[in-house]
Amino acid sequence: MALRELKKELNQMEKTEIIKLISEIYKKIPDAKNYLDIFTTGDIKKLAEKYKKEVEKYIYPNGRNMVLRETEARKIIRSVRKMNITELNIQLELHYVSCCLEIIDDFGYWDDNYYMAIEKMFDNAVNGIYEMGIEEKYLEQIKTLSLKASEFGIELDY
Asked: Angle at the Cα of 112 (from 154 to 56), degrees rounded to 5?
């Protein structure tokens, strides 16, 4: 069903039917629950921590062969971006960069695509910060990440 058709159907529904529908979506679809929680409370802290743990699970090496699965972490971040909650995106993107820099530091990991992904993620976060006008809130974290990255030859400009 196209969005236009959905809107038409919703406009024909009674308020109580819409409330019942949203309640069912809230109960059955975790991403919808997360979005509605933020929509109603405006608090992203709990959700940010949940997604940060998921990102870490994929960034840090796993198993005997020390397999890196940072592409899965990027998929999580792309999925979260669809919620269109800029500050949540910023926090996850900066966390991703921080975790990846730790991998480079701890394991001496070197891969051009890995480095480019870090730079792109950092740029996305900085763009979101400027978009929201919250440069002061993230300035120290950005400086720290940029300085750490420069130790590995990665330029994270802000």
From this structure: 75
CA–CA gap between residue 158 and residue 127 (Å, rounded): 9
Structural domain including 6 reads 1-43
Domain shared by 27 and 85, yes or no: no
Please tell me whether residue 91 adopts helix, strand or coil conformation: helix
- CB neighbour class for 96 (10 Å; exposed up to 12, middle 13-18, buried from 19): buried
pLDDT digits (tens, 9 = 90+) for 34-72: 888 878 887 889 889 999 999 999 998 776 677 788 899
Looking at the fold, whether 92 and 136 belong to one and the same domain comes out as yes
Predicted TM-score (pTM) of the model is: 0.82
Question: What is the rounded distance in angstroms from the CA atom of residue 59 to the CA atom of residue 8?
Answer: 43
Query: 142 and 78, same structural domain?
Result: yes
Indicate if 100 and 157 belong to the same structural domain: yes
Same domain as 56, residue 121: yes
Taking a C-beta distance cutoff of 8 angstroms, is the pair 141, 94 a contact? yes
pLDDT for 58-111, tens place per residue?
998 776 677 788 899 999 999 999 888 999 999 999 999 999 999 999 988 888
